[in-house]
Amino acid sequence: MNVPRDVVLLLVAVLTLFGGAATVARLLRARRHGLSIRLQMFLATASTVALLNAAFAAIVIDRFQARAALFARRAAEDQARAAAEVVAASRGGQGLGRALQGFAQAAHVRVLDASGAMVFEAGSAPPPTAVASVPVAGGGSVRLELPTFGMVQVMSDVAPKVALLAVLLAAAAALAATVIGRAVGRPIERLTRAAEHVAAGERQGALPVPQGREVRALTEALDQMRRELEQRHALEAFVADLSHELKNPIASIRASAEVLEEAIAADPDAARRFARRIQDSGAKLSSLVADLLALAKLEAHGLAERAQAVDLAELARAAAEAHAAQAAARGVRVDVSAPEHAPVRGDATWLRRAIENLLANAVAFSRGPVELGVAASPRGWEVTVKDAGPGVAEVIRPRLFERFATTRGAEGGTGLGLAIVRAVAEAHGGSAGLRTTGPEGSTFVLFLPERRAG
Question: Which of 25, 158, 222, 310 has the fewest CB atoms lying closer than 10 Å?
């Protein structure tokens, strides 16, 4: 394909200007935050390849020029030898001009005698020219100047194409450097974002899947650091929450014991009443400690070592059966809607406890049937519990799944049931939340991602 020289030069200029402008713009933006790994790799690779391509193009053009000059000189020598043979054959004749007319049409020919005096001259050759001087048999010489305009024209066509090829190679190298820089920089950027999420409190956020030995080692180191921080945070939070929540039942037990000591002889009924209060406070204290210990253990260690194939539908039916008596005592019916099987990987004990906590919460507030459902979602499984209660108070919604968030403190609620549900969901890589709430009831959702047993 014969591409016009002007078009080639314009294309080379546009590509060079575009690449230079883009590079300068990136460098200016990098002045504020420093050079990224991507930009460093791009500059190093692109500049190296650009210099190599420039050297390659210069070498190619120089060698082409040398070969072209050699071919022109040889062509001039060949024509000069042919003209010398014609001159030797026409020595003393009158037809020298006619014999050399064919040479004079394409070159400048001069015939010199043995003393160097010019005998004949014809033709013209505008520069640049290739010059050759050949002796004539019997004395004298022929000097021939052959124009090399054709070679110059070839060079003027070849040089821009070589330059375009060099620019295209540089562009390809820049593209390759961009791809390599992205392949190196993207995992680090993903790890940075994941670390920022962990620092912001998303303790169970999954780290990106590592690619490459170095990135895998870095990911494992970050995950180990996160687990250690979680354990420390869990221990500190556990101690703080435990000391805070134990104050009320302990104070109640101490006060009741003091009153009981005084009333045990004078008022047996009061003694029995305060004895029951001590028993209730002790039961609440026992439940609170058990739940706190379970929650702290779950948040600190997770469930990675205990994951196995379990049937979520079977766990839901078992949880509903376990709460049937409690629901019947409150005049509430529990309806279960689940497929025959819902296979997942997880810890059966904790998953059942999470479902039971949701059911217990719904039964405690519901004024009608409670609906327990298990259904497949596009990304995993959803366990939904819908009650017919009055709805969740707006003031408690933002912290509903936090520790000790409860409106049933007087009824023995510890405020840890939904916190355990959230911890179980996050330990399985899922989530728990309040989907809807209102005067007609609330719907809670436990989501587990696609980790089906194979």
Answer: 25
